[in-house]
Each structure stands twice: as structure tokens, then as C-alpha cells.
# Entry
Amino acid sequence: MSAPLIWIITPAFTAIVLLTVRRTRTAAWLGAGVAVVLALLAWRLPIDQAIPLIGDWGIRITPRMHLLGRQLVLTDAARPWLTWLFLGLALWVGGAAIARMEPTFVGLALTFSTVLVAAVAIRPFVYAALLVETAALIAVPLLVPPASYPGRGVLRFLTFQTLGMLFILFVGWMLVGTETGLPGSALVLRGEVLLGVGFALLLGIFPFHSWMPMLTEEIHPYAAAFVLLTTTSVVAIFGVGFLERYTWLRQSSEVFWGLRALGSGMVAIGGLLAAFQRHAGRVLGYAVMMEVGWALFALGIGAPQGIVLFFALWPARGVLFALWAVALSGLGRRQDGLTYHLLHGKGIEFPLLTAGAVFAPLGLAGMPWMSAFPIRMALWQSAATTGWMLAALVMGSVGLVAAASQVLGVLVVGKQERPWKVNEHFDEGAWSLALFALAVAMFFFPQGWWSSAQAMAAWFPHLSR
Amino acid sequence: MTLVLSDWPDAVAGLLFLSGLMMLASEDWRWLLVNLAVAYGGAAALIALAWPPTLAATVLVAGWMAVSVLGLSQRRATTTATTRTSAQVLRLLAGFVAILLAIVFARPLMTWLPPLNLSQAWGGLALLILGILQVGLRSTRPLWVIAGLLTVLAGFEVVYAALEQSLLLAGLLALIVVALALAGGYLLVQEETLAEDAL
# Structure
């Protein structure tokens, strides 16, 4: 038995079965159950070590699987990442019924995530670009379910992912055998530039970010947030793989400074643009853009703290965006849109969803008592040595706080003709409260997931040393 | 006669440019798809300079499958968009700028990527630039965007074929081409169904 068989092939086949399930709730429970089991297996089962079963009998999970002459490799060091990834997937897939998604969402979401896991696992890594593109193509029916209009955002998403794939394929060919190439050579410079452009397209780095707010404006916020968050998070890991593999890239101080500068710039621009929107979905899109910025900034801090902070961003982000997406799904479904004039005064009728739509962005901005605060604090402290970067990060957070305040104002200010009343369905209210409680609990017990982040960072020994 | 035969790659590169230009200018989806099919034929011919013809045929088959899928998704389309001459002229001008760019950058690309010959560099670059132009200038029309992306992929494959001769990579790129067309077809059918329902 091999690790890729358990964590790539099994969920892929399960996803195909789940596509035949007709009820979202059933599919969501089954999908979440499978994801939790895979997370538990990743937590408990060591890879490439003997696992005793009965007496002298036992099994060994091999890290490699051969596929069409190539290899899928998931080593023991990848287990903490797999645990968190499948836990996150369980959270999002489980919430699909609460967000009233199509039944196919669960199967497609599982397929999409599995293909992205395969992209991280495949060797030679150049094939990862093709798998990321495959994931983007799978995301099309996920983003545009039957009987919904395909907007420009999906086309732009496809365009940027396709162009990004071409850059990465080309760089992959160009950099063969240059793992220890000398910095400063013309080849290295070309490699850095092309790699930068490729990842800028894939991750929606400024100025290629326009598809993010377009997607969250035109598409169901739950599907859009899931696709954006998963794509950017896993593609970022693929990018970290480049830093880990190429000595000249890892040893270049300019690259790390560039990552910090780009990251802080994206946080500032995302936050400022979020503050001037008139659509709650677009604010979510800019928040995803800011998350990419935070991740780049964390990576730019360098070894060993940077990579730990990079992974520490994941759990908090997953919970807060799930809360936000469920809240916007509920509000958008009832008001037939998320523009501010449609949402005007509706907070009185749906206070729990309103709380989700306001506290989630506040938490992502770095508000105390929410899960993201400890990591934001650490990142602000790291930025303190460079004044303008700290100012940019703070400016971004202030922008997102302003956007959240505006959403709050839109939702609760108006004619108070009726008293406050909880009109949400039971499952919506309970799920929102559970996610909110989880986000607060993560603030109080950060050591629990900080140690996991350290374990995840160990997957990249050169960067975590 | 011998001279003409030995120059066929240049003629194919010229054909690629013309088909790309026609796609950029066309308002009728039929012309768009015919030119896309021609572009894939030309791309496969240039790829055959670097790859065995049987392997190069995968590009042709995948490209034509993609064209068929897009064509099938248009079978209910009854109207063509209103043509604005000024917009067409602008796109044609942009297309001519693209040929200038392709000519200017073809030789530097050859020095950078030695396995490339001039016809491949020129033809591949022309398709890449014209495809990107099409995606950018017609970003609101799914069929044209998908066709533009397929044009970009064809151009990339012409250049990449000279560098990399992996069977699996060729197969996966062919799969991506067909999958992109399927995704595009899905979007087109969705759009048409909703437009019909609205009537």
C-alpha cells in the first residue's frame, strides 16, 4: 500500500461516487466523513515505517506510487499538512449543505482538492503545472453549476491559470539541472523573472488579481471562496517547493526581500480596495488577495520562522473564510444578491449571519479574540524592522476593518420598524456559532496549531532549518 | 520547385499568422472555428519538424477534437453579434502589431532557445501573441476567449516541442486542450440555455 493510494487515489474515486448522490446533505456528510477519516489516517499512520497489526503481522505504507512512468511522492513529513488539508476540506464540504450548494459541489470539491494534492506530490515537479490547470478546469462546473450564468470572472480565472501553467512548464524545462546554479547568471535571472510571472498569474498577485473579486462577485460566495482559497494555498506550497529545491533561489536575499515587499503591497492594496466596494462578495475576494499577501510576506521572512508562519496562517484562514462564506451565502440567497443596497437593514432579520459577515473579516484583519490574531501579531512584529512594510500591513488591516464596518453599517442601519429576531434556519445559526466558537478557541489555544505549523514546516528541511 | 518545397515551414508559419489574424477579426463563430482548425493543422506541421509525425499528430487530433467540441456547443446559436467596423479595424491593426512583435522577437528567442528554428519561433510566437490579444480584446465572449486560449496553447506547443520530447507531456497537453474545450463548451451551453430561458 502506498501513501498516494490512500490520500490521492482513494478520495478521487470517492469523489466520483459522491457525484452520483442526489441530495446535498447526504453528499456533504459522506464527503466530510471521508475527509475526516483521511485526516485521522494522516495523523496516526506513519509513512515508510512498519505498522504492527496482529502479532508479527504488519504493514508498511510506502511513500511512492508509480503512475505512467512518473512518481507521486508523499513522505512522512507531509503527514501534518495532509492532516490539516483534509480537516479543512471536511469543514468546507460539511458546510456545503448549510450554504445550500448543489449536490455535485461535494464530489467536485473533493476531486478538485485531490488533483491539487497530486500536483504537490508529483515528480518531476514540472507536471504539477498541468495538474494545477486540470484542477482549474474541474473548478469550472464547481463555480458555474447548472442553470447559473457564466460570468467574466470564470473566464479570467481560466485565462490566468492557463497562462500561469505555460510559464511554469517553460521554467521547469529551463531550470533542469540548475538546482545548485550560481546566483547572478543570466539563466538564473531569466528563471527568477519567468517563475515570478508564472506564480503571479496562478496566485493572483498584483496586478493579476482582478479575477478574485470578479469571481466572488459573480459566483456563489461559498464555491468562489473555496476555489480561491484552495487554489492559492496549494499553489503557494508548490511555489515553496521551488524555494526548497533551488539553492540559488533560497540563498538570494533579493528574492526574500521581494516576497516581503510584494506581500506587504498586496495586503495594503487588497485592504484599501476592499474598503471602497459596494458588494459584500467583492470584499471577500479582496480578503483572499490579502491572504496571498500575508502568505508571501511570511515566506519572505526567511528561515526558519517564515515557513512556520506561512503554515500557521492556514488553520485560522480556513475557519474564518468558512464562517464568512456561509454568512454571505445565507444573506445572498435571501436577498438575491450581495450588493449593499440589497442588504440594507437586513441584519435585524438575520443577526447570526450578519455576525458572521462582520466578525470574519474583522478576524482576518487581525482583531484580537479571533484565530488569526496571534499570527498577524507575529507578522507585524517581523515587519517592524522595515517601517514602510509595517505601515503597509497595518494599512491593509485598517482597510479590511473599514470594509467590515461598512458591511455592518449597511446591514444594521435603517428603519428599525421590527425588533431584532433570529430568522436563520437552525443549521445555519448553529454552524455559524460553531465556526465562531472555533475561531475564538483557536485564539485562546494557539499552541495547539502552532506545533502543527512547525511540523508542517519540517516538510521543507532547507527552509525550516 | 525544390526551393519552394524546402521553404514549406516558412509558408506554414505564414499560414499560422493568417489564421490567427482571421480569428482576431472574425465575428462569425464558424470562421473562428475553421481558422482555429487551420491553426492546429499548421502547428502540428511545425511540431513535426521536432517530433516524430505520429507524436505530432496528437496535437492535430487534440486540436480538431477541441474545435469539434466547441462547434457542437454552438449548434443552437442562431445569431451572430453585430459587427462594428471600427472594432474590427482595431483588432486587425493589433494583429499587424503582433506580427511585427513576432518578427522582432523570433531571432532573440532562437538564440535563447537554440533547438528552435526560425519558422517554429516565428509561427509559435505569432500564435502566442495573437491568442493573448484575442483573449484580451474579447474577454466578454466565452467562445472567443476559449478559442484564444487554445490558440495560445497551440503556439506554446510549437515552441515547447522543440525543447521537450516527452511522450507523457505531449499526451497531457493534448488532454488539457480537449478539457479546456469541454469546459468552454459547458460554459457556452450554460449561457445559451439561460438566454433561451430568458426569452
Remarks:
- Chain A has two domains: 1-123, 124-464.
- The first strand of chain A starts at residue 50 and ends at 52.
